[in-house]
Amino acid sequence: MAIKIKAQERNVSFQEGVKKYAYVLQADLYNKLSQAKVIQEAALRSGISKGAINAAWDAIGEVIKAWATEGHSVAVPGLGSMRFGIPLQGLDFPRQ
């Protein structure tokens, strides 16, 4: 499985009034699937009722939100793992 990506030229400077352009890679998404569509497809593929899938979806979402925001890396089947982070160059530290 491959993820389609695209390069987009953006201003990557964090200084006000300074422009520094670079190409930034990002996922090339062509549409957003609704929760209902995902649940319907999961129910078809698994043979589990939509109600049970919906309850599990909500519970899994709460667990991922809690653990990822606590700093844990969370496994996502078939994709790898996810975690939240802040790029260091995006922080503005006070100068001493």
| SS element count, helices | 2
Beginning-to-end CA distance, first to last residue? 48 Å
Overall geometry: elongated
Tell me the number of strands: 4
Helix content range of the residues, please?
25-40%
Mean model confidence by pLDDT:
86
Order of strands in the sheet with most strands: 1-2
Rg over alpha carbons:
19 Å
Largest sheet: 2 strands, antiparallel
Low-pLDDT parts are none
Topology of this structure?
Layout: E1 5-11, E2 21-27, H1 35-46, H2 50-69, E3 74-76, E4 80-82
Antiparallel strand pairs: 1-2, 3-4
Helix pairs in contact: 1-2
Brief write-up:
This protein is of the alpha+beta class. It is built from 2 helices and 4 strands; from the N terminus they run ββααββ.
Descriptive notes:
The termini are far apart. The radius of gyration is 19 Å and the shape is elongated. Helix 1 packs across helix 2. By secondary structure, it is an alpha+beta fold. The protein contains 2 helices and 4 strands, in the order E-E-H-H-E-E. Strand 3 (74-76) and strand 4 form a beta hairpin. The mean pLDDT is 86. The longest helix is centred in the middle third of the chain and has 20 residues, at 50-69. The strands form 2 sheets. Strands 1-2 form a two-stranded antiparallel ribbon. It has a two-stranded antiparallel ribbon with strand order 3-4.
Keywords:
33% helix; alpha+beta; 96 residues; 4 strands; two-stranded antiparallel ribbon; 2 helices
